[in-house]
Specification:
The chain has 477 residues and is an alpha/beta fold. It is 34% helix and 19% strand. Helix 2 packs parallel to helix 8 (224-233) and helix 10 (274-282) crosses helix 12 (310-321). The longest helix has 19 residues, at 417-435. The radius of gyration is 25 Å and the shape is globular. The two termini are 37 Å apart. Xanthosine-5'-monophosphate binds at residues 44, 46, 244, 270, 291, 293, 295-298, 300, 330-333, 351-354, 379-382, 405-406.
């Protein structure tokens, strides 16, 4: 009459023969057509999880953030822009100044665009100098002309620079900005020492083909024609149709409509069955997102009586997707081992809310309660989030009395994302080492699990002991 379905806690991966060390495992993955990530993790589009700060932090470590849509469209696009501007390789359209400008104009431009220097161009757009805050330090006369103060001996790159040649020029000349010109000395770009340093500090950053961080944004079937153009202008890398029930006519129509209007990769969801996965793929989704009710703040399964335990949902949808598009396992990740299980069930990556809500970079302030530090975490279907405007995710009209499908709460403060994500990814690599899987595609194909009992789960956790020193990758709230 019905099938059994399992959640992550119901199963364990069978260890296998291995010739690989965890540190040598490769965790790169494909998020969707044309976008690669260096770690298989993205952050949830939730108003207590992902805004620009967290999106920058996670992309610097190789994943990506999805900026939530409880923000007005302009503000969401502004935050996407902040992420895209955080890191550059060659800035294609740097702020420049003309040779006729006065020092006062330059100071105003520097303030307005928050830059510490600008190439100076003649009327033919050729590079004739560079002016930086260093040149301006002892210049109090705002009426002086830029050409009287700028540095004329310019260190520059011609053509297509390499990181090695740029690095050498920065080191040898102790400069902070390196203009790039074409063979006729016309400015084509600018490299800054700040960007070079950021790239060096974050060698695994997930970047687009111009060296900028990858970022996504949530949209809905109701607002995609408003958010779409703004997000495109802000150079968003991908959008997510963020709905609680993705297997609907509404979502399919919107998906087709979006694909027709915009040339931006689309992730669509959420679904939890083969039927839902197939329909999203047939209607053009570039990746599908799986999860109905596994989230730590979700009450959909008890309020509506609907859902599929997440391990089975991922397994089934991944079978349907079978290499056609990537599968994202959304919700229910409590420990790093759940990431290994999700990918073992066939997902290409996971989406995480709860574990990231307590990070320093997530929105909101730290709260002290009973002597410990927490941060707020709430479902997008909770009363608080619905009041802020996210009702359409749950098919609730503006004038309707809300029936929440999520709760509001708090999670322990976890410090900075960098070390926390390192623990999650190291746990995944350990799992891959136990199975002898050298990369994500091998782990996806491995598919050897055992079903465990309640006693097995109890035995899996720390037991018969009082924890005296908390580990960075294990706690039981
Ligand atoms: P975790 O387990 O990481 O899950 O906290 C985050 C995911 O949960 C989904 N989400 C919700 N689901 N009611 C729901 O049924 C809600 O209020 C809600 N808010 C978020 C979402 O897919 C997220 O990525």
């Amino acid at each position: 009459m019905f099938n059994e379905a399992y959640s992550y806690d119901d199963v364990l991966i069978l260890p296998g023969y291995s010739e690989i060390l965890p540190r040598d495992c490769d965790v790169k993955t494909t998020l969707c057509k044309g976008i690669k990530l260096n770690v298989p993790v993205i952050s949830s589009a939730m108003d207590t999880v992902t805004e620009d700060k967290l999106a920058i932090a996670i992309a610097l470590e190789g994943g990506a953030g999805v900026i939530h849509r409880n923000l007005l469209p302009d503000e969401q696009a502004r935050q996407v822009g902040n992420v895209k501007r955080y890191l550059n390789w060659v800035i294609e359209n740097p702020v420049t100044i003309g040779e006729e400008a006065k020092i006062g104009d330059i100071k105003a431009m520097m303030d307005r665009y928050d830059v510490s220097g600008m190439p100076v161009l003649d009327k033919g757009k050729r590079l004739i100098g560079i002016i930086t805050s260093r040149d301006l330090r002892f210049c109090s006369d705002d009426t002086l002309s830029v050409v009287d103060v700028m540095t004329r001996k310019i260190v520059k790159e011609e053509g297509t620079p390499t990181t090695e040649s740029a690095r050498r020029k920065f080191d040898e000349n102790r400069i902070e900005k390196l203009p790039v010109v074409d063979s006729e000395n016309r400015l084509t770009g600018l490299i800054t020492v700040k960007d070079m340093e950021k790239h060096a500090q974050h060698p695994y950053a997930a970047t687009d083909n111009t060296g900028r961080l990858i970022v996504g944004a949530a949209i809905s079937p109701q607002d995609y024609m408003i958010r779409g153009p703004l997000l495109k202008n802000a150079h968003v890398d991908f959008v997510v149709f963020d709905t609680a029930h993705g297997n609907t006519k509404n979502v399919m129509d919107a998906l087709k409509g979006f694909k027709k209007e915009f040339n931006i990769p689309v992730i669509a969801g959420n679904v939890a069955s083969k039927d839902g996965a197939r329909r999203l793929i047939d209607n053009g989704a570039d990746a599908i997102k799986v999860g109905i009710g596994p989230g730590s703040i979700c009450t959909t399964r008890v309020v509506a009586g609907v859902g599929v335990p997440q391990f089975t949902a991922v397994w089934e949808c991944a079978e349907e997707a079978a290499g056609k598009v990537p599968v994202i396992a959304d919700g229910g990740i409590k420990f790093s081992g759940d990431i290994t299980k999700a990918i073992g069930a066939g997902a290409d990556l996971v989406m995480i809310g709860n574990l990231f809500a307590g990070l320093k970079e997530s929105p909101g302030n730290e709260i002290i309660y009973d002597g410990r530090i927490y941060k707020e975490y709430r479902g997008m279907g909770s009363l608080g989030a619905l009041k802020k405007g996210g009702g359409d995710r749950y098919q609730i009209a503006k004038d309707e009395e809300p029936t929440p499908e999520g709760i509001e709460g708090r999670v322990p403060y976890k410090g900075e994302l960098r070390s926390f994500l390192h623990q999650l990814v190291s746990g995944l690599k350990k799992g891959m080492g136990y199975c002898g899987c050298k990369d994500i595609s091998e782990l996806k194909r491995y598919r050897k699990f055992v079903k465990i009992s309640a006693a097995g789960l109890r035995e899996s956790h720390a037991h018969d002991v009082q924890i005296t020193q908390e580990a960075p990758n294990y706690s039981r709230m």
